Amino acid sequence: MSTTQPGKTGINTEDKQVAIIGFGNRAQSLVRDFRASLGKKIKVVAVADPDTTAAKERVAKMGISARIYPTAREMAEKEHSIDGFLISSPDHCHLESFQAIARFNKPILFEKPLEGKEENFYKLAQELLRYPAPVLVGHCMRHAPILQKARELIEQGWIGKVNSMRFVQNCHYGDVFFRSWHRNSATITSLFLEKATHDFDIMHMMNGDNYAETVFAFSKRYKFGGDKPNDLFCAECPEQVECPESLLNLYTTIRGEDLLNVEERVGRNKCVWAKEADISDDEMCLIEFSNGVQGVYVQTFYTPSSYRGRVYTIVGDKGILEIDLGEYRGKIEFFPRYGTRNDRMVYKFDYLGKNHYNGDTHLVRNFLGLMQGKESPLTTIKAAIASELLGLAAVKSVRSRKIEKVDPGKYLE
Ligand SMILES: NC(=O)c1ccc[n+]([C@@H]2O[C@H](COP(=O)([O-])OP(=O)(O)OC[C@H]3O[C@@H](n4cnc5c(N)ncnc54)[C@H](O)[C@@H]3O)[C@@H](O)[C@H]2O)c1
């Protein structure tokens, strides 16, 4: 339902009513962005989260007055005036979350990856391709001004014909995945889905949305996991003073964060050495794309915070683009093949304290545009399916130790 409310100035502000499924870290961050990037144009009116106590506290803390439900199905039965949904439940609940609200046929901001469980992913992909309303997938990096600028430079021909790509992700905060539900393959399958799909999506974008066709991957767990109980919380551990990865040491002593804030971070406070942590923390793959471009991707989840984060190198026959995404600011450097030793062009970007290289600002604006019927999704279901199919083929290759085909099947025809 849309309401038009004349403000004091006489200018109409159009509030869109949004319901959220899964009100954890990501949802809270996006709700902050709704306010910071859209003024009051999005109003959160309902939240479905099985942890209703925590949801009530978070909603109150954020100053919103949403109705709280324990399940998305219950919310769907009682709510009748929703203009759009945010699905931000854990990866392995995405199919169930979508099915609960699909009959509304309203725009959805759908968090990535599409699904954490392989069998659910294929079902969801089919259902989403048939869904009549627009779906914006949370591949927020596509929206980042720095990456849009790099895409533009490639399309303008600065580096000529793109031949190969080398994408590296050094994730210094990778320990968070081993403190929560992410650490078990039953929930995310692999970080090739949960995390690398962001980078695969950008590889596809820089390659004119020509998707991956074959992949050969390795994946190992070198650092995290072990023999500690699955229900051990860091703050209750007798070894937290000695343990180098404890919240106390890693966040408070080394990084200077407030320990109480860190310990309260929803679902990010268990022991990284738990038995159930069976996902890898160091992964890499070689990729060939449908237009003959080749690529390499590496992701590591225990790198020093002083080291570089994501660095993307794109090689063309007339030059190279290097995108250094940095944590707070980033830069694109263009090196011309026929330039002198010192020739380069540099673009610098400040993310202004916004998440995902300032991508989230534009992601939530695109979501509002969908609900207003003025825009279409920048991050499409088809592109999200392509990245997830690449992630799944990489997992298959790790198991088979062979080159695997990324099977587009009936999804990408
Ligand atoms: N686009 C991005 O860059 C980005 C960043 C972070 C997380 N995410 C995605 O957002 C989603 C949520 O991640 P998070 O970090 O907020 O996790 P989280 O653990 O912080 O929050 C998940 C919330 O969902 C609730 N929940 C559990 N089961 C549910 C169910 N069946 N239905 C509804 N709610 C349920 C939990 O109680 C919790 O409050 C994940 O899919 C994750 O991959 C995307």
Describe the protein.
The protein is built from 13 helices and 16 strands. By secondary structure, the chain is an alpha/beta fold. The protein folds into 3 domains: 2-138, Rossmann fold; 141-224 and 278-405, Dihydrodipicolinate Reductase, domain 2 (2-Layer Sandwich); 234-264, no CATH class. Strand 10 and strand 11 form a beta hairpin. Helix 9 (196-206) crosses helix 13. The radius of gyration is 22 Å and the shape is globular. The two termini are 35 Å apart. The protein binds nicotinamide-adenine-dinucleotide (NAD). Nicotinamide-adenine-dinucleotide binds next to helix 1 and helix 4.
Q: What's the main sheet like? A: 9 strands, mixed
What proportion of the residues form beta strands (DSSP E)?
15-25%
The oligomeric status of these chains comes to single chain
Q: What is CATH's topology name of the largest domain?
A: Dihydrodipicolinate Reductase, domain 2
Q: From the alpha carbons, calculate the radius of gyration and give it in angstroms.
A: 22 Å
How many strands appear in the DSSP assignment?
16
The top level CATH class name of the largest domain = Alpha Beta
Mean pLDDT: 93
Shape: globular
Number of domains: 3
Task: Tell me the span between the first and last alpha carbons.
Answer: 35 Å
Helix content: 25-40%
Quick structural overview:
With 413 residues, this protein is of the alpha/beta class. Helices cover 32% and strands 23% of the residues. It has 3 domains: 2-138, 3-Layer(aba) Sandwich (Rossmann fold), CATH 3.40.50; 141-224 and 278-405, Dihydrodipicolinate Reductase, domain 2, CATH 3.30.360.10; 234-264, no CATH class.
